[in-house]
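new request in #modeling-help
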Amino acid sequence: MSQYHPPVLDAKFILDQLIGFDGLCEKLQLEDINIDLADAVLEEAGKLSSEVFAPLNWDTDQNPAQWADNSVTQSPGLKEAYQQFVDNGWSTLTAPEEFGGQNLPQVLGTAVSEMWQASNMAFALCPLLSIGSVEALLAHGSDELKALYLPRLIAGEWTGTMNLTEPGAGSDLAAVSTTATPDGDHYRIKGQKIFITWGDHQMTPNIVHLVLARLPDAPPGVKGISLFIVPKFVLDENGEPGERNDVYPISIEHKLGIHGSPTCTMAFGDNEGAIGYLVGEPHKGLPYMFTMMNHARQGVGVQGLGISDRAYQQAVQYARERVQGKNKDGSKKPIIEYPDVRRMLLTMRSGVEAMRALALEASAALDFAHADNNSKEKYARLELFTPIVKGWMTEFAQELTSLNIQVHGGMGYVEETGAAQHFRDARILPIYEGTTAIQALDLIGRKVLMDGGVALESLLSDMAATANELSASSNADAQAFGASFAQAVDKARAAKEWLLTNAPSEKELSQAVCFDMLMAMGYLCGGWMQGRTLLAVIALTDANDDVYGEEFLAKKRISAMYYSQCLLPRALHHFGVMVQNPQALYEFAVDQF
Amino acid sequence: MKILVPVKRVIDYNVKVRIKQDCSDVDLSNTKMSINPFCEIAVEEALRLKEAGTASEVIAVCIGPKIVKEQILAALAMGADRAIRIDVEEQPEPLVIARLLAKVAEQEDAGLIMMGKQAIDSDNNQVGQMLAGIMGRPQGTFASVVKIEGDEALVTREVDGGLQTVALKLPAIVTADLRLNEPRFTKLPDIMKAKRKPIAETTAADLGVEVTSTQQQLSVAAPATRQAGIKVASVDELVDKLKNEAKVI
């Protein structure tokens, strides 16, 4: 519906100025890879996303995937779009060279992924899931499985899916009941999986399902789950898709959004049992899933970013065109001139820019961890970021896509305008790949309480250093930003201390305050990125930079200041609620609802 | 057969053009620059001819300072085999460009010079024709179809009255019109490969061409802003306004 303008220059700015892309590539020993190449890559990805995927977005929504006779047909146009995506090599971006990948840094993959997600999220979920299965196989697959499946998955010839959820096992995977029985050199998988994204389609000649199931001798609970690979078509002796495996989509869901993404109920082994192969060791399925969790969860955070930017762009376009009321001289007034409309647009813009910088910072944390031999410290930073990127960015996306509808007024509530689609599509984001509650619990439990707040303190001291740098600047904007940011960092430190002191003795405390901590950390991290943006902007302006230009830098500066004035205070609010430990929540008994 | 494809760095077609405050020129500071769209079509056509087995090599040639390497890399990423940059400080006039290209075409012994019909910045539409004149080669301008048969290029031209097909004896110059093809999306692996493709550098002096200037740009101006429309009460009033105010009938 609306034209999508890929954020090539902003992504380049963040990679170059905030992440230090050239230095990162040096650390990763990637010869010939630098910011100019990244720019060329972003440019081309931008073209494909805006010219091919974005125009299909509305049609994809209006013509959902169809199910008939245990088979799914994807929305019209997607097969061709997928073929173009694959032919142009985009599925290979970050994959290792050994299996046909281009071995580019994750952070560049994330910048590019934002464009796929923004242009057509329902479609872009498919390659996103393939990357997940590639990661799982890379980390845990045998050499034989890698040789058979990785080159085809990386080339995009086949796609991958993740089969975790069952009717009785959602957020609690300990309840997984699908079984795997040894049968010669393979296993027979039996059971039902639900909510399987892109579980079936006709875009590729094979689909590779990664499935969690229990072996006959499995201990109960989370320690008895194993990971299996179950191809739609079993490979013949030449490694080509051969016989149809006993795994079928038996229905698809009718959903609020992402209509182009078939969400399947998958029946494994209704007949003779689906042939599957064990990935890695028995009973290690869940820890294996966690190794790719960082990528998958951050990937969903990036969907929140992409769709929010798309919504923002549409809102600006409409606000410029829609005329309501008159100026004093009688001329008609586009609604963008009203301060409250500008408030909404700036909230979206500043929020999107903060999210983009955070998404790239968090994704670069993985690259920096790799570059540093997966050092414990660097890895801890990455792990700390993951629930914040997933939880905060997808929650924030609800507000930002909703603001797009608000800017449109009544027209936004009408489907044909297309604003509603972004809102509907975005609604899945805080649910799948671990709900917001799961992210918040992960943050407060695994990432903060478990290490006694060490990783968090390391992040907060980096933030305090940025606050000092801002305050020490001779620039008045930087000083003002520094003052509010320092206050927020102090609040965060106090909240951390409060949590470490009180959580051990109060049973439900961490679960009761985790959401506010997650949101507080999100707004704080966004503030950190905007503060660093401001420092970079000031340095570039002082140096009379001619790469980004005066206008771009001025806009970045104002967007950063808006964040410190209007969005950063939300961090104070959420930290405040957190340490207040609202007693009403405990007091209201379950049977009083 | 070698195909030589000149590519020009111009302001991106999506960018709203700004005028410098003193009206001396278009303001190109921090402006997105791209390959001229007609040049891009020419690159695409050359690549298709190579893929069809008609051509053996596609050579991109670009005239300008170091910064034009961005457009050279874009042409190489599309699929050109190698490139030549002719180093000049400022963009020369069409006649000088034609002389420079003629020298390169001779040196390379190019069988076909496939180029854009014009650049979207200065809209001259001159270089192809001048180049044909200087080299004494046949030209097929405003091409919408190009076919190579034996030692001839069959070029369908978009002319005012419709389509005209001409047969050109190779070597020849063909200039691309908008409908010749739709340029491809560049592939990721090709972006990576482009950096390793050779880019030769030369100068106008090396080519024995003097960079002279016979024209002087006095000023540039933005198009006049469009006036709001009015409603007329009758056909008579409309005719009257067209006659006396707009003076178009």
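bot summary: The helical segments of chain B are 37-51, 69-78, 94-108, 127-135, 188-194, 235-245.
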